[in-house]
Design goal:
mainly beta; 50% strand; 137 residues
């Protein structure tokens, strides 16, 4: 269970880290409520992987400055939410509609010093390394 009354860096500690110390190379928003995040290696610029989010219900993007890609990202964290956490997460993100009756929901947090992205989606696909090229289209 996630305790959203804590500060974000505290409650995010319990989440699974799927990418760390990478650069966000691009964000592609599709017409079917999906978002694709592309990551590259901070050292040599080679592909690190992709995170594809399907059926995005809520997203919150915050930045402290005008973004120019690539952007260094400390952590990309993910947590599949249980029924209780689904309601809490929608409330935490001030969802403006009736909370959907869904059984599968993922919380994604992408954080750096100049960028914070939090989103709720129905499903995700994480590809690391070489799979990047296949998912880059």
């Amino acid at each position: 269970m996630i305790n959203f009354s804590l500060k974000p860096y505290e409650w995010q500690k319990s989440m699974n880290t799927i990418f760390q110390n990478v650069n966000l190379d691009g964000i592609i928003i599709s017409n079917d409520t999906g978002i694709l995040f592309r990551f590259i290696n901070s050292y040599d610029g080679k592909p690190s992987g992709t995170l594809r989010c399907y059926n995005v219900w809520k997203s919150q993007f915050e930045t402290g400055s005008l973004l120019e890609f690539p952007v260094f990202i400390c952590d990309v964290r993910m947590q599949k939410l249980d029924k209780f956490d689904i309601k809490s997460a929608f409330n935490y993100l001030d969802f403006g509609f009736e909370i959907p009756d869904i059984s599968d929901c993922y919380l994604i947090c992408i954080d750096s010093g100049e960028l914070s992205i939090i989103l709720l989606c129905e499903n995700i696909n994480v590809c690391h390394g070489d799979a990047f090229a296949e998912n880059n289209s």
